[in-house]
Amino acid sequence: MGGKVDSEHTHRSFSRRNLFQIGAVTAGGLVAGSAVAACSSSAQDVAASSTTTTMAVNNPQDALARLMAGNARFVSGEVLSQGQDATRRAAVSDTQTPYAVILSCSDSRVAPEIVFDDGIGDLFIARVAGNTATTPIVQGTIEYAISSLGSVLIMVLGHENCGAVKAALGSVHGDPPPPGQIGAFVEPIIPAAQSVQSLPSDQQLNAAIQQNARNQCALLKSLQPIIAPEISSGKVNVVAAEYELVSGKVLLLN
């Protein structure tokens, strides 16, 4: 976007949400030399020298391409690690324009900013064990990024060897209920675990991980009144993906 404000999106954001009195809204994505929208001339000067040089984002397709390009750099070990310095911190201190939302597991091995080689202010992250979107808090968090921050892509990111999915499979196989409040994040994954019971036992875990990501993706696509209309208009997309722990690759799921 090169820092230009999307006036139509700004109108949508302010008329529907007006959350936290956001002063500048854009579809996200910065290029070298771009001025980040800010409330002071000094912040604009700092933004002009931002070190973020990854591709600009104008639509959901651009956003997905940028994520996957960043992941390819991460896998190859040729990361840019840009947008992570003092210049970038100052540039986004007055406003944020994350181009994508990542709903990921809380697993310590899955850090979206690292996995996608992005910088401060580029990604809006919602993390919960099992990467589920069934609670109002998670849904509202994601809706806020779409309606008020201008994010144009939502990725539900599951990962290999997920403990939350393992617990859901254990529950459908008759294991005792988990202690404390752990069952609260296991319960939403039960439908995915149930759907793979006919598979050989050594295939059930990964199949359930992928199905859970797809289920959460479908749920987010159906949410009214914010996300579903944006998808229908082509301004937002929701995709499911799985992260491979050893290779570092993010695989898009059909």
From TrEMBL:
Record's catalysed reaction(s): hydrogencarbonate + H(+) = CO2 + H2O
GO molecular function: carbonate dehydratase activity; zinc ion binding
Matches recorded under InterPro entries: Carbonic_anhydrase (IPR001765), Carbonic_anhydrase_CS (IPR015892), Carbonic_anhydrase_sf (IPR036874), TAT_signal (IPR006311)
EC number assigned by the record: 4.2.1.1
Gene3D superfamilies in the record: Carbonic anhydrase (3.40.1050.10)
Gene Ontology biological process terms from the UniProt entry: carbon utilization
Keyword Membrane assigned: no
Pfam families xref list: Pro_CA
SMART domains: Pro_CA
Record-linked SUPFAM superfamilies: beta-carbonic anhydrase, cab
Keyword field: Lyase, Zinc
UniProt cross-references to PANTHER family, sorted A to Z: CARBONIC ANHYDRASE (PTHR11002), CARBONIC ANHYDRASE 2 (PTHR11002:SF79)
Family membership: Belongs to the beta-class carbonic anhydrase family.
Identification of the protein by name: carbonic anhydrase
Provenance organism: freshwater metagenome
